[in-house]
Specification:
Number of domains: 2
Structural class: alpha/beta
Bound molecules: oxa(dethia)-CoA
CATH superfamily of the largest domain: Thiolase/Chalcone synthase
CATH class of the largest domain: Alpha Beta
Number of helices: 10
Number of strands: 13
Distance between the termini: 16 Å
CATH topology of the largest domain: Peroxisomal Thiolase, Chain A, domain 1
Largest sheet: 5 strands, mixed
Length: 322
């Protein structure tokens, strides 16, 4: 059976590192609070590069690594909630810059689940047999929608991107998925665009920033992620012992600890790099995959589960045979 395989992964984060101590000079916080409550020690923030530039850098790396020519790419999907423009899509900017003249392109908005959602979409295009080579990115410049006076959020969110080049693969690749949304819960919202026009001038001002009920999101994540991982295992007829790594969205190391405990899984099965990058939303899973691949942690045949959760609310998991 033809599945969708991951041919290569790559990532890019901006050079500028901001430490917890540096943040404690602009808001009432401390390295001790941030580290103990979130596991975050540093994050990378853009000094001007926008989301499309991250994807272009990642796309160039993927084409170079794989030897695939830009003209061979059939489809480009960018998962982001921080596009450069409302339109054109970030994926169209990437298509142009990479010279993927034969690709169609669109963005996906599913917050921190965006990369998992986008892999799922790409998988269906590839399985249809009509499209052979797809670039999927998860990239964010969350710093541009973060309120840098709000200590509840500004210590968490950061910038960066990752991506994958997908192609058909016999047997292995994307094996199972579990995707969800619950639009009735708005405990995390970002940049509210209100209607204001020639017939509507007195609209309340929209909020330009991310607003979050952290505790509610924490409880949501620790409830749905173990269920979603179990759902994937059940669908694929596998047990946790068959899974080499679980690669969760990197929001808070305490969330990952609780998920591991609920699944009765050893924490060493989970890849954690939130200490270095903070929460990069749709970018966190592909950054982790790229880092793991770079360290030689992912071998052909390894079964891994990726699992994301975030605003929407959205959540989802996927089983991939590497
Ligand atoms: O990508 C998905 C989206 N986001 C998430 O997954 C975030 C999920 N939530 C979390 O990670 C955690 O809930 C947070 C890290 C956001 C907060 O940790 P918490 O243990 O849930 O703390 P809390 O919100 O209950 O706040 C505890 C105290 C409060 O003070 P009082 O009311 O007890 O006096 C906060 O005002 O910590 C205070 N606080 C801070 N103190 C120092 C909140 N933020 C900070 C801060 N520095 N940055």
């Amino acid at each position: 059976m033809i599945n969708t395989g991951i041919k290569a992964v790559a990532s890019y984060v901006p050079e500028r590192v901001v430490t917890n101590d540096e943040l404690s000079r602009i808001v009432d916080t401390s390295d001790e609070w941030i580290t103990s409550r979130t596991g975050i020690r540093r994050r990378h923030l853009s000094t001007g590069e926008n989301t499309s530039q991250f994807c272009i850098n990642i796309g160039n790396k993927l084409l170079e690594k794989t030897g695939v020519k830009a003209e061979e790419i059939d489809l480009i999907i960018v998962a982001t909630i921080t596009p450069d423009y409302a339109t054109p899509s970030t994926s169209c900017q990437v298509q142009k810059a990479l010279g993927c003249v034969n690709a169609f392109a669109f963005d996906v908005s599913a917050a921190c689940s965006g990369f998992v959602y986008s892999l799922s979409i790409a998988d269906k295009f590839i399985r249809s047999g009509l499209y052979k080579k797809v670039l999927v990115f998860g990239a964010e410049t969350l710093s541009k929608i973060t309120d840098w006076t709000d200590r509840n959020t500004c210590v968490l969110f950061a910038d960066g991107g990752g991506g994958a080049l997908l192609e058909p693969r016999e047997g292995a690749g994307i094996i199972a998925e579990d995707l969800h949304a619950r639009g009735d819960d708005i405990s995390l919202t970002g940049r509210h665009h209100v209607v204001e026009n020639m017939v509507c001038r007195d609209a309340e001002k929209g909020n330009p920033y991310l607003i979050m009920d952290g505790r509610a999101i924490f409880n949501f994540a620790t409830r749905v992620v173990p269920d979603s991982v179990n759902e994937i295992l059940e669908k694929s007829g596998l047990g946790l012992e068959d899974i080499r790594y679980i690669v969760p969205h990197q929001a808070n190391s305490r969330i990952i600890d609780i998920v591991a405990r609920k699944l009765k899984a050893d924490i060493s099965k989970f890849y954690i790099n939130v200490d270095e990058y903070g929460n990069t939303s749709a970018a966190s899973i592909p950054i982790a995959l790229s880092e793991m691949s770079g360290k030689g942690m992912l071998e052909r045949g390894d079964k891994i589960i990726i699992t994301g959760f975030g605003a929407g609310l959205t959540w989802g998991s996927m089983l991939i045979e590497w």
